[in-house]
Structure formats: structure tokens, C-alpha cells
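PROTEIN DESIGN WORKSHEET
SECTION A - STRUCTURE
LENGTH: 276
C-ALPHA CELLS:
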């Protein structure tokens, strides 16, 4: 398997892999991907790795080693509405129409700095929806989410449990536009974009959700301000849909010791989907 990966073979047959073999394969891919990723490349993907370091170690580490991030500028209580937020008309029940509306959205300041809206990628009849935090530089340039090194690593990890964006996975972000300078999403930007994410999930109707990174996990679980290390390892629910929270794949490229925790979360996700 390692030889096929080093030779650049993209099609990997993963049936029958043991836990150790799959983790070894993921580790090799992470090393190859990480070597080509500059410190800030990938925008939202790179930012996720930065924010992940403040989230503390994986679940199960001593409580004294975990830290809850301090509230940043603009943090507001869950459910609070930003002053002066622009009202959004009721979105249609047509996926194509919702996408067209999103592509021309000017609801927040990010419309002034984006190259293009990054709406989604993957199968619209997906069993699983993966939700990240925001587009990065590669995504802003291509109009597709998770196309950088972290996105490729995510694809590999999903294939280890029999899932792929071509057939069974739909991928999107909390924000549809790249924040300038790869900064964190602001509360009013998350609020402005929320109706689009809500409608996407309503129309896709997946069996389960996988939130990668703090912003996606907190937004979908409704537990703002809770460290990601405390959200992962258990099944939450978003409007009745099972939700598993885990680390952003970009964080795994820079924190190899978190890969096993991500793997455990994938096993939890797979068990939820198998029982659906």
C-alpha cells in the first residue's frame, strides 16, 4: 500500500484493512501532503490547523491539559442576533435555485473581497454531509470546497470507511466566502450564511453529518464556546440528524498525534450510518 501511495496511484482498494494498516496509510499520505503545504496555504484549511492548537489535546487526555479558548472579539451568546442583520427571503425548495441565490449573495462584507462563492461539492443524494468552516485560497480560486492538501487527505480518510465525495459524500462550509487574510469567521458572517447551510442540509437530507473544526462543530451542535476536544467522541444531533464532531483535516497535517482520534471519530460515524 505504501508503495502504491508513493508512486502516486490514486485508486486504493481498502477492503479488509486492519486499523493499524489504515492508520499507517493515512500517516504516509499526511506526510506527503504536509510537505507541500506552506504555513498559510489553503486559507480556511490552514486556519483550522491554527485554531485547532488552541482546542487542546484529543478527548481522553488529562483534564488539566485541556484549555477552553477565550472568547474572541465579537463573540455573542448562542441565539443572539446581530444588530442590523439583513433579512433573507424564504429560500426556495429547489436546490439549483438556492445555489443560484447563494452565488450572487451580498448579505455580508465577504462579498466585497471574495473571488467567487464556494457553495459545495460532491453528491447531492449523499448519505453523509461534511461541513467545514470557510473556503481557503484554493477554494476561493476554484469555487470548490476542500481542494487543497487537507481536502485530499480528507478524501483518503473517508475512503478508509467506504465513503467518497463522488458517490456518497456532500461537502460544504459554514461560510460560503473566504474571509480575508484567512482570519476566523465572525459571528455576523456565520449568521448571514446560516440560512444557506440550513437549506442545503434540509434538501440533501443526509443520514449523518460530520463537522470538521471548531466553528462547524459549535455551529451545528449549538454549543458555542465549547472546545472541540469536548465535543468530539460522542453523537450529537442537528435537527434530528446524527452529528459527529472531529478535527479539521488540516489540523491533522500539523498534529499527527490527532490522526488516531480522527480515525476513532470516523468509526463512530460509520457505526451511526450502518445502524440508520
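SECTION B - SEQUENCE
RESIDUE ASSIGNMENT:
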Amino acid at each position: 500500500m505504501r508503495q502504491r501511495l508513493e508512486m502516486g496511484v490514486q485508486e486504493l482498494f481498502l477492503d479488509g484493512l486492519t486499523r493499524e494498516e489504515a492508520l499507517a496509510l493515512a500517516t504516509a499520505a499526511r506526510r506527503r501532503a504536509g510537505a507541500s503545504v506552506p504555513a498559510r496555504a489553503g486559507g480556511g484549511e490552514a486556519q483550522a490547523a491554527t485554531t485547532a492548537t488552541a482546542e487542546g489535546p484529543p478527548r481522553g487526555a488529562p483534564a488539566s491539559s485541556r484549555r477552553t479558548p477565550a472568547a474572541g472579539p465579537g463573540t455573542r451568546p448562542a441565539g443572539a442576533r446581530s444588530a442590523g442583520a439583513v433579512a433573507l427571503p424564504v429560500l426556495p425548495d429547489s436546490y439549483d435555485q438556492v445555489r443560484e441565490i447563494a452565488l450572487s449573495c451580498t448579505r455580508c462584507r465577504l462579498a466585497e473581497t471574495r473571488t467567487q462563492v464556494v457553495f459545495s461539492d460532491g453528491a447531492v443524494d449523499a448519505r453523509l454531509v461534511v461541513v467545514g468552516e470557510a473556503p481557503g485560497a484554493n477554494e476561493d480560486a476554484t469555487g470548490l470546497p476542500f481542494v487543497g492538501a487537507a481536502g485530499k487527505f480528507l478524501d483518503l480518510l473517508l475512503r478508509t470507511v467506504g465513503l467518497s465525495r463522488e458517490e456518497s459524500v456532500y461537502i460544504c462550509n459554514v461560510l460560503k466566502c473566504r474571509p480575508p487574510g484567512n482570519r476566523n469567521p465572525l459571528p455576523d458572517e456565520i449568521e448571514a450564511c446560516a440560512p444557506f447551510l440550513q437549506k442545503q442540509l434540509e434538501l440533501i437530507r443526509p443520514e449523518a453529518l460530520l463537522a470538521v473544526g471548531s466553528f462547524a462543530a459549535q455551529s451545528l451542535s449549538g454549543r458555542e464556546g465549547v472546545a472541540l476536544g469536548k465535543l468530539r467522541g460522542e453523537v450529537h444531533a442537528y435537527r434530528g440528524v446524527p452529528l459527529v464532531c472531529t478535527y479539521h483535516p488540516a489540523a491533522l497535517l500539523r498534529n499527527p498525534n490527532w490522526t488516531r482520534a480522527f480515525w476513532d471519530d470516523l468509526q463512530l460515524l460509520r457505526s451511526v450510518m450502518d445502524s440508520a
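SECTION C - NOTES
The chain has one domain: 18-57+92-274.
The first strand starts at residue 121 and ends at 122.
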